[in-house]
Description:
This protein is α+β, with helices and mostly antiparallel strands. It has helices spanning 4-26, 81-84, and strands spanning 33-38, 41-47, 52-56, 61-66, 69-75, 94-97, 102-107. The strands form two sheets. It has a four-stranded antiparallel sheet, with no helix packed on it. Strands 3-4-5 form a three-stranded antiparallel sheet. A hairpin with a 4-residue loop joins strand 3 (52-56) and strand 4 (61-66). It is elongated.
Amino acid sequence: MLKRRDxxxxxxxxxxxxxxxxxxxxxxxxxxxxxxxxxxxxxxxYPLSVDGVFVLNGGTNTLCIENGxxxxxxxxxxxxxxxxxxxxxxxxxxxTCLPNRLTVSIEGGEEGEVLAG
Length: 117
């Protein structure tokens, strides 16, 4: 039988979990550019401040940058995990396409920073 202390403990843990989830989602600074690597080698740098669609890796993947975020919108890999990963825009976030050995990582940048490309 649950007692009052049990309910207080469960409620406290739920509130703590929600606070941590909120902190993770809202934390991190806005990234400045999407860096595309194939096999670990940099293939391109795309500023998040400029909307566009870019064909990557000889046509295996298509990168879309829109409203300050990057996403893989098309891929020729069978599992489509990279497409389902969604939008990234915070420094340190990464989209990975293992079959095509491609990564898109968000790096650098703060509001107003000018990126050389």
